[in-house]
């Protein structure tokens, strides 16, 4: 269970890092906070406010709201590295 | 004592009242503060909403029907000062050959700041498109207030907005400031929303234009004429397969005007003519040019809309077929002239002989006979030409009446009896017993058809050969072979015609050299002579073209079959009910 959450935090850290390059760190982290992600000053995800899967879903939806299909195109390759989570979400 | 107690009570009440008043004042103050905060928030929300509406209105007004992403970005940039504070706003546009980078400086910054913005934008585009843009040529321009190299401020806050048209990233818009943590979520979200709406509008417009373009492209691609369209810089924007084929460039992509110019070298200076046509605003049409794939006329025309030139269009008109028809007509004319000259020459020689020498009466008769024969040949040729002219002019009239085909066939066989004997050819008939006594057709023209077929059958026969004229009745749905068998006829036509309506079938078969398979299709064409047939024995082939027209005017069909070295059969049908087709 704990391992599972760790994977989500790692995945979200990667996505936020990528979005920070694309959107800029301010926009990327603001969207992450809105989704319930707790980050340190570098933008690494340290915890989530609620359920990890729901937070991850909200994070992806938040980026999709800003970037549309482009967000999916960027998140998909990262998601490939997490096959267990990939099977649970349909972008 | 009582006085003191009363005073104490009064003071206590007064304190309580004052405390209540103070508490209520504080409560009112708090309430007012909350209301003020709510109002400020609502005002802020309304400001965002107003901005969103006004910028979208402005976008639709200013952009209109423009497909330019640059226009969209510049309208957004123009509206930003009313809504958001920033030091620099920049955009990058991805073009096929370069990147355009523009920055508007609202506040003075250093070149270092601009370089940082540029680097962040390049990184963003690289991350989105998974491509390296560092080595791509970048066209840079700054506007707004001047750079100040004495300033040390770096980029403190920024956010990037990718501009996606259709499903392609067309560019990036970046708002940046020297202060840290300067941008709030709401204003960023509003800008993303505005950019998305603007991109969506351009995408929809582009889809409409693309749909129109694809129709236009499909039309141009399916044109038999070759078409090239160039822009004002003489770059090819449209080229169809026919143009590539004309120039022998079918397998080459990414073609330029120079590729076509090279193919036309020594025949037409294409580049020069395109430039001349655009400059003089004149249409240029070339002479016929021989290219590897055929003969072409090349037309070059300037293209412009209401206000400005758009480029040039080059059309390759394929003249190969016209050229071929012209050659066939020339050959035909030569052949006719030759066919007329030969009998004329004979007549002239006969008359000269008769005029210059004392010839015996018997010889004189022979000369007259030859003159008669030659003039008859000429008359037949002239009649045929007149018939063809009538057919082409649509003035060939049938005089249909109830006629007896058996009587006509027998009459024609009798007529050709002498000629057949002279040619040492035996002529016979095989007529089915169930042929109707009377069928409606034009007896005169059908006789003419039989004359053509029988005379050819005699002419192109071998010595001691045979000519057989056959006729049978075909019933719709029946097998012609079976019908022939039932009538006791040895039917030479191998093709079966079960699906044609009730008709008379007439066939004339000879035992001559026959006709090659690939020549049979040319037999009934008035301008094409079948060499194997006419080469040795002479003849124009016009008779068969006339035959075809006469039979088709009756609603029937003509055809031929042959086994090389064994002979040939020519047949025609006459529908018993009009309008029948094979």
UniProtKB/TrEMBL annotation, chain A:
It comes from the Bacteria. This is Uncharacterized protein. It comes from Candidatus Staskawiczbacteria bacterium RIFCSPLOWO2_01_FULL_37_25b.
Automatic annotation (TrEMBL), chain B:
One of its GO terms (molecular function) is phosphorelay sensor kinase activity. The chain crosses the membrane at residues 6-30. It catalyses: ATP + protein L-histidine = ADP + protein N-phospho-L-histidine. Keywords: Kinase, Membrane, Phosphoprotein, Transferase, Transmembrane, Transmembrane helix, Two-component regulatory system. The keyword Chaperone does not apply. Residues 335-578 form the Histidine kinase domain. Its EC number is 2.7.13.3. The keyword Kinase applies. PANTHER family: HISTIDINE KINASE, TWO-COMPONENT HISTIDINE KINASE. NCBIfam families: sensory_box. This is histidine kinase. It comes from Candidatus Staskawiczbacteria bacterium RIFCSPHIGHO2_01_FULL_36_16. The lineage of its organism: Bacteria, Candidatus Staskawicziibacteriota.
